[in-house]
Amino acid sequence: MKPAPPIAPDVTYPKLAVYHDPITPIEPLPTPAPVTPAIEVVNLSVRYGQASGCESITFSALPGERIAVIGPNGAGKSTMFKAVVGLLPMSSGTVSVSGEPCAASHDLVSYVPQHESVDWNFPANVWDVVMMSRTRHIGYFRTPRKPDRQAVREALEKVEMWPLRHRQIGQLSGGQRRRVFIARALAQKASVLLMDEPFAGVDAAAEAEIMSVLDTLRKLNVTLIVSTHNLGQAAHHYDKVLMINRQQIAFGPVAEVFNAQNLSQTFGGFLTVWQDQSPYTVIADDSCHEC
Amino acid sequence: MELINVLAALSLWELIQRGWDVLLRDYHWFITKPLDIDLLQRSLEAAILVGILSGVVGSLVVVRGMSFFADALSHSILPGVAIMYQRSRSGDVPNVAGMRDANPLLWGALGAGLVSTVLIGFLTRHERLRSDTAIGIVFAGMFALGIAMVSRVESYAGDLTHILFGQILGVGPQDLNIIIGFSVVVLLIVVVFYKEFMLISFDPLLAKTLHLPTEFFRYLLLLLIATTIVVSLQIVGISLMLALLVTPAATASLITHRLHWMMLLASLIGSACSIIGFYASYHFDVATGPAIVLAATAIFGFVFMEQAIQNQMRQGIYRLREGRTG
């Protein structure tokens, strides 16, 4: 992956987005939060050659928390995800899961890849794909046993894909495909899910469908770290927001970090953000002056 | 649609019945007479085995989109074949594992196959070159080297044809044993590591996060492909090897949506093609390799067209139900 310029020219935000409703944080978790964070990333840096992938990222998430990662294309969101699960080597920094440090990757962390990176014509059905994540549990020279089948069934029921388990993956809708991949992470018994752009290229109905699955996961105390392009969604559906543009711009609860300064710093000159005393945040795409 | 299907089935049934009558009447001439000759019987057995083997391994090639690699590999074993060819011409045949009577070209092919597998595997491992570029370079270079080596032998044209397009009638008793041995080993490895191969083919990233030795399985798969190619060399030759790997598997992928069924179906189709090609070659006096490949291509074409027509009909019915026309 080549490092893209900090401000990608093909950012796909609406030209003008006005959020009439004030930013309200979603209801806090019902259970008292435990002390150890589900995942803690300290000072993570990834460098490719001379250019930097992402620089000094620090954040932590409690069990069940939902964190939005926002930033322009090429800001290093995917790079950061891959480094956290151990697909890319970290130049510096530490990742600890449930208080335990892990050098490379951890069984409790699962990466849900971008939709485009998968061959949807592959001869496998929903069941096969979810069972793949049990490969390690099953072990070499063995076939799936009862606990494996049970885990797959539970995961598929949680995302409401059990009735479609015999479907070939290419015959699923966009929302269903993403749910299968969430089920795959659940069957792996992961407690932290890193989801790379799950909402890219889906319509509003599918978005609501995925969101309701994410709500179910929240009740199951699964920590979700989701990269998204949708600022409105980030403002309304997540506990915390991590803003990245090659380096960390801000991390914190939505109400604290979702302000004009951070947003324009994250997206460079592409967004103009007005936020005065009123509870409304107005975000305008800077490229409008060309039209 | 139902009426058309019934009519089609009836006419097809009639055709099959007539064909069957002819077959029964001339059963001996058509089926068993070629098998009276030992050499031909061995050839048929070898061809069926190769059909099964290449169906299974070819399924992995197709789902991973490695057909270019497979084609390149089959061409880059030529130098190894050429070395053995030169030595056998001068009567200097190596005695590998006591199999003096086996086709010496096989060992040369196996050696060259291993060398170019490791070479291509190494070149494509680091992303300094696009993998198709790296494969192309090794492929063309090795193939040219092989041709150059063969061309140093006088009156090479006829033998080169056999190497390129197969010489099924050269299957000796020891060759058959070698083919059986390698087929069993390759099939066993695929069965034992089936779920690992499936995972690594579908999502190498997940395989890596699950700490599977992805590089090991990648090389293992390359070696399986190389072995399959070498074993099939005598049946279809270097140039048509790709068809044996890809066409039955592609046909199967049109019919089924699960990898294990695809492998099973591909080996059924592959061995059926071998049988059809064998008899066609005997009765119509065409070269066996091309006959097998043509049978595979015909089956693929038939399945593809059938599915296209079915799709059109389904869409037509959908339009009728929707009340739309045209």
Write a structural description.
The complex is a heterodimer of chains A (about 290) and B (about 325). Chain A is built from 9 helices and 13 strands. Chain A has about 290 residues and is α/β, with parallel strands linked by helices. Chain A has a domain at about 1-10 and about 35-65 and about 75-105 and about 230-290: Rossmann fold. In chain A, the strands form 3 sheets. In chain A, strands 7-8-9-4-10-11 form a 6-stranded mixed sheet, sandwiched between helices. A 4-stranded antiparallel sheet of chain A has the order 3-2-5-6, with helices on one face. Chain B has a single domain (about 35-320), classed as Orthogonal Bundle (ABC transporter involved in vitamin B12 uptake, BtuC). Chain B is built from 14 helices and no strands. At the A-B interface, strand 7, helix 2 and helix 3 of A face helix 10, helix 11 and helix 13 of B.
